[in-house]
Amino acid sequence: QVQLVESGGGLVQTGGSLRLSCAASGRTSSIYDLGWFRQAPGKEREFVAAISWHGTSPPRYADSVKGRFTISRDSAKNTVYLQQNNLKPEDTAAYYCAASKGSKYTYWGQGTQVTVAS
């Protein structure tokens, strides 16, 4: 089992920045990828970014966040970060981190809310 806990969400103005954190615990050696997803009210959950847990492949981003968001990993802390810059109102959503054991994201955190005011 893998447990994931997100933090770092909040309310910011358009153009502001936030750094989300996802702390993993449990059988972290079994993680293949750790990704960030988001879900806005009335919309489906969408992929935001992902990073290889063991550093075997480059990070991946949704087109909507490329150049503004950066995903990174601190192996010593078993934590993945999502640095969000130049935030826009359309980035408002609940953000979830998820860990995969292959092609499927199996473990999910409880989510953290990001609200960008216009």
Determine the mean pLDDT.
96
Estimated structural class: mainly beta
Spatial separation of the terminal alpha carbons: 40 Å
Low-pLDDT residue spans: none
Q: How many individual β-strands?
A: 11
Q: What is the H/E order?
A: EEEEEEEEEEE
Kindly provide the radius of gyration, computed on alpha-carbon positions and rounded to a whole number of angstroms: 13 Å
Give the percentage of residues in beta strands.
over 45%
Helical fraction: under 10%
Instruction: Compute the number of helices.
Output: 0
Main beta sheet: strand number and arrangement? 7 strands, mixed
General form: globular
How would you sum up this structure, described in words?
The protein has 118 residues and is mostly beta strands. Helices cover 0% and strands 55% of the residues. The chain contains no helices and eleven strands. It has strands at 2-7, 10-13, 18-26, 33-39, 46-52, 60-61, 69-74, 79-84, 93-100, 105-108, 112-117. The strands form two sheets. Strands 2, 4, 5, 6, 9, 10 and 11 form a seven-stranded mixed β-sheet that branches.
What does this entry show, briefly?
The chain has strands at about 1-5, 10-15, 20-25, 35-40, 45-50, 60, 70-75, 80-85, 95-100, 105-110, 110-115.
Q: SSE layout and pairings?
A:
Layout: E1 2-7, E2 10-13, E3 18-26, E4 33-39, E5 46-52, E6 60-61, E7 69-74, E8 79-84, E9 93-100, E10 105-108, E11 112-117
Parallel strand pairs: 2-11
Antiparallel strand pairs: 1-3, 3-8, 4-5, 4-9, 5-6, 7-8, 9-10, 9-11
Keywords:
single chain, mainly beta
